[in-house]
């Protein structure tokens, strides 16, 4: 019994971040199958990248055939599988011919990694987000404005005429986790839950430039007033997101993401008078890899 | 052999913070002896406060006599030996009759704890610093202006006519430690050392309101430019201190502290055009306890 050719992948896409590995069995622009593991770049030693990848994609390979594999993300960092040197902005988020080939032992695969982007002044870097952006621009080639990608590190990316012209990374998510879990504030902050009113109050204070000076009040107000742990959590989130958004030029704005965090950014932007569109980012890495793959074949 | 009465303490002062316990054998305003241990309030369980104190002061006690003991600091917190409820500002930093008595088993001691201060809007609290401020004001009763007390949490305290009229706690030192040791920036930050030029650049950016957005550049500039770990450490410190100082009304200003951190604040204030005086804080807690003790006896 053999599968029909239309059910056989002709390339494999790989989204390999710090904490997660996802693979896509692709035929042209069509995704036939997807698998994932927790073998993120952060926990994989130098010699273990190829086995970690093969563990997921082996069912899609055939002896005597070479499968093109296209990866993006932290796998291309200096501490990753093989360094894919950054491309300097301004530039298109991905560009044909720029992927870096990785030597492999298994003859059935030909692996290439897409480079990240860097900016000189002020210094900044990204790895992985450029591919999401390419996926977004494949659907919306005429978009000009700012793309926000919330997460541990939130990127604000300026797009003009299909190019990334500049970007800024904000450590908002990481700061939130450190303050909520490791600082003296942890005694006053709930492990989850939200409170829209407290969040909005935090955003207002953060937008006004007062976030740093307002942090300790989250502890003090729990001691001498009646701030609840849930309200404290929401206000901390608002303070940090407000501080982040106070610093950027934002007019036309799309948030790539989903769930609570994307909605929190949307609400905070509304307080700044910016109507931001939400765009679910779940498939954008795959679509960005596809855009590169199809562009490279032309 | 008996000691001369002038060598015998007639009260004992106690500076009991989160991480350290210091005791002073006092005769009036004169300090005869001092001892310390690492039995800070943070590591002492409820039943262990009295033994931890006696371990240090036992040589100064005599059977059949009751020694007054006056303590300040986190020992008076809810999680301390006994809660000494906050006094509300505006008020003098310490006020006669306000110390809270602690029941003890040993009949040779009579222990009282000075209350900390609280502010309602915005909420803030202090425990221990009020006694340092009382020590400072005992020497400089006519001082009007801002007292800065750098540390893990830096307090900015507004003084008018001998009263604390308001204060703000900035988590600058704690934020610095979290970012330098626990965040992604740790890969780019030296464990010690400084760089005055990088510090000044950070202060300038922090004063201008750009600290949050400039944090990740400390990582990126190490990856794609030539930022050294020592310069990154100094710039992070400058960014956070600059952000802190951008938020306060500061004109007449005294920094209570010593060493590198006090000088860093002095340099940062100079960049804001504020000439701040340095005042070594080493003896101020003892002098504040003395001011209370002598005032209470009147």
UniProtKB/TrEMBL annotation, chains A, B:
Keywords from UniProt, A to Z, are: Kinase, Transferase
What biological process terms from GO does the record include?
D-galactonate catabolic process
Top-rank taxon:
Bacteria
Q: Does the keyword Transferase apply?
A: yes
Q: Supply the Pfam families for this chain.
A: DGOK
Give one GO molecular function term. 2-dehydro-3-deoxygalactonokinase activity
Q: What is this protein called?
A: 2-keto-3-deoxy-galactonokinase
What organism is this sequence from? Aquimixticola soesokkakensis
């Amino acid at each position: 019994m053999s599968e029909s050719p239309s059910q056989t992948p002709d390339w494999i896409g790989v989204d390999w971040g710090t904490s997660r590995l996802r693979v896509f069995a692709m035929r042209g622009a069509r995704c036939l199958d997807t698998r994932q593991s927790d073998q993120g770049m952060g926990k994989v030693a130098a010699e273990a990248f190829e086995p970690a990848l093969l563990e997921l994609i082996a069912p899609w390979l055939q002896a005597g055939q070479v499968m093109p594999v296209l990866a993006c993300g932290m796998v291309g960092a200096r501490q990753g599988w093989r360094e894919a040197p950054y491309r300097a902005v301004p530039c298109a988020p991905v560009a044909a011919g720029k992927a870096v080939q990785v030597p492999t032992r298994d003859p059935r695969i030909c692996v290439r990694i897409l480079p990240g982007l860097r900016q000189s002044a002020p210094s900044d870097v990204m790895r992985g987000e450029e591919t999401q952006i390419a996926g977004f621009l494949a659907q919306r080639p005429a978009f000009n404005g700012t793309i926000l990608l919330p997460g541990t590190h939130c990127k604000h990316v300026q797009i003009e005429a299909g190019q990334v012209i500049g970007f800024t990374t904000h450590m908002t998510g990481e700061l939130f986790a450190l303050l909520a879990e490791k600082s003296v504030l942890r005694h006053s902050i709930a492990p989850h839950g939200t409170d829209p009113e407290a969040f909005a109050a935090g955003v207002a204070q953060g937008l006004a430039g007062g976030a740093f000076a307002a942090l300790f009040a989250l502890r003090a107000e729990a001691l001498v007033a009646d701030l609840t742990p849930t309200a404290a959590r929401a206000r901390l989130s608002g303070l940090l997101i407000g501080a982040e958004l106070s610093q950027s030029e934002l007019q036309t704005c799309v948030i790539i993401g989903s769930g609570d965090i994307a909605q929190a950014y949307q609400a905070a932007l509304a307080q700044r008078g910016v109507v931001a569109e939400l765009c679910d980012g779940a498939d954008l890495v795959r679509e960005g890899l596809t855009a590169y793959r199809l562009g490279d074949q032309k």
